[in-house]
Amino acid sequence: MILTTDELKWIDEQMKIYDIKYQEIYNEILDHIITAIEEKRKGGDEQGINGLFQQVVDEHFGGFFGVEKLAARQKDIYLQGVRRLWSKCFRYYINWQMLVFTLAAILISFKLPDVKAVRAALLVACILLAFSPLLHTHFSLSGKIKTIKGKQSLIKGHMISQAVLPGALFNLLMYAPQFVVLLLTDGDDNWNLFKQVPPTVITTILMGFVLLNLTAIRFCKQMMVVNSLT
Predict the structure, then answer these.
(1) Is 219 within a domain?
(2) Residue 84 in domain
(3) For the residues 13-39, what does the mean pLDDT come to?
(4) Are residues 117 and 159 in the same domain?
(5) First to last CA, the chain
(6) What are the backbone dihedrals phi and psi of residue 110, each rounded to the nearest 5 degrees, phi first?
């Protein structure tokens, strides 16, 4: 080991002066600094850890503000990657099999009686499909990502934010139309999407949640692989 335990502890304490919000980015920058300092030691530089640390920060990051700029830039790059992966997972299920399945479900729905029990069953199916990705993501990440005090997990945050999309859309479908009707009818708030529309329309919405459900779960699995959390 090139650096002593005390020197590693000193570096870890020194890193607290930087405003690096996310654990993964913090780990990358910390590892980069430690590796660079070790390389200098191997090259024969025997100056104290304080001088070596500052030298590496100045040379590799452009000083104090350079570290924080890099952290912000890494977050943006990571977010772009998250969006690309979500889009890729969504496109994965845009195929003829999904089209045939959707058309078959809609055609069958024309034969369903327009009664409360049928609409309730379809509503329960929508709820399960909308919120199961969030549960899947939560349990998949359980115990696999550790953060130090004051840090958040970039990976966990983005995975959950994507997994919650189907649930957020479900809430929007449930309450946004009711809010519009409330405004237009001057106080009549008895209208409800899943009580007023026929089973065929609810089935069409249900198939949309099937697509989002599959996308969100595949996205979670892909993120686990990319970040070696499996």
Answers:
(1) yes
(2) no
(3) 88
(4) yes
(5) 29
(6) -65, -25
